[in-house]
Amino acid sequence: MANNMNILLVGVGGQGTILASKILTYAALSQGYAVKMSEIHGMAQRGGSVVTQVRLGEHIDSPVIDEGEADMIVAFEQLEAYRWAHYLKGGGVLIVNTQKIVPLPVLIGLAVYPDNIIHRLREKVSRVVEVDGLRLAAEAGNARATNVVLVGILARFMDFPQEVWQEALKARIPEKLLELNKKAFTLGYDYPGVVAI
Fold it and tell me: For domain 5-189, which CATH number applies: 3.40.920.10, 3.40.50.1110, 3.90.1640.10, 3.40.50.1820?
């Protein structure tokens, strides 16, 4: 991993974007990195966008990631991936959950949910990791663990030891849900076809 890394996590209210960011932040801090995190909520409780910016490195001044500066984007929903893809730097990695959550303007007929989002993303982004995180989370025991599945995939692109991630899960997940989330993390981490280069 490079000395500095900028990671954008984007999703919709209720998907666990912030919890995923806190797991990542805990893991990075435990490895001695300076970490800055900022959150943006857009009517999150009503299904609006939730964006978390995590910057880590030897020395980080600002928590803000500018357009074209994200090394990685973890998108919890297809449309959010599309909305934020321009923040990815050339050669960056876009992890996109295939789930679709139709926003309010589409529901009331003021907008249209775009077709073929992942195909369009592949035309713009050289490294797209597409995953049905919802299915994997359900396999782990609860569809709400999709966020931890995506953290597992993210972990493949970082050089933190496995035990660091396990400790981060233990620190951030309630004990009664820990085993389920450990399984969700492992299903993400072991997801076939992920090449961390």
Answer: 3.40.920.10
pTM over 0.85: yes
User: Could you state, in chain order, the average pLDDT of each consecutive group of 10 residues for the chain (197 residues)?
Assistant: 83 90 96 90 64 91 91 96 95 95 85 92 94 96 96 94 96 96 96 71
Cα–Cα separations (whole angstroms), residue 143 to 133, 134, 138, 140: 8, 5, 4, 8
User: What is the DSSP secondary-structure string of 168-187?
Assistant: HHHHHS-HHHHHHHHHHHHH
Q: How many CA atoms lie within 13 A of 66 on its CB side?
A: 1
| Token output for 130 | 């597409």
Yes or no: say if 150 and 136 are a contact pair by the CB < 8 Å rule.
no
Return the closest-CA partner of residue 79 out of 53, 46, 105, 54: 105
- Which amino acid would we find at residue 32? G
